[in-house]
Description:
The protein is α/β, with parallel strands linked by helices. It has one domain (3-234): Rossmann fold. Helix content is 40%, strand content 23%. Strands 3-2-1-4-5-7-6 form a 7-stranded mixed β-sheet, sandwiched between helices. Strand 2, helix 5 and strand 3 form a beta-alpha-beta unit. The protein starts with a helix and ends in a 7-residue tail after the last helix.
Amino acid sequence: MDFVKELEALGINPNSDILNKFNTYYEKLIEVNSYMNLTAVTEKEEVYNKHFLDSLTLLKAINLDSSLSLLDVGSGAGFPAIPLAIVKPNLNITIIDALNKRIKFLNDLVENLNISNVKAYHKRAEEYANEAKESFDIVTARAVARLNVLIELCIPFVKVGGYFIAMKASGAKLEIDEALKGIKLLGGELSNTLELALPDGAGMRSIIIIKKVKETPSKYPRSFAKIKEKPLWAMN
């Protein structure tokens, strides 16, 4: 894997600052992962392929060159938010995660990387919606939950005209079929689905792009317990 060439193929200028930031990210991830479960992937080339470049496949799905607000829901160890923040300083990125120790890791990481375009909060999505509904141009989520659950946690945050982008493993057709009814109820419509191969045979990625075409009804999102118990596709 030639990380520099992969970045160039994505239209990114891989200068020394960007490369140093990714190296620092890797080192901090491995250091903290030794005492806190952040990732099962720890070998350097795999981290670069399966986490860093995987996160940046988002650039193949949507133009992120302007000053956009982006919310990453359930970011975990910072994917895709932090790699995007490193290569796209024009983005105004907010991260929420339900686990406070992950948020502490991310805030420490942002300080170590000396990036100023990321804010990370210890929030549950369905609670944060009370203060930030319809506030973001782009909302992302990577491998957080099944799509029919994820849409209710994410689409309410998207401004009308903006996009929710779900990053899933390959073969997401069944999940999409399950979620179509809920997507419409929440004010979205399926815009596109991309199937992409990661470098060095690191796997396939489905990127599901949902456009927000009208405001989400005020009753959504419901509590997580209700979302999980009865996803929108199962409702009459």
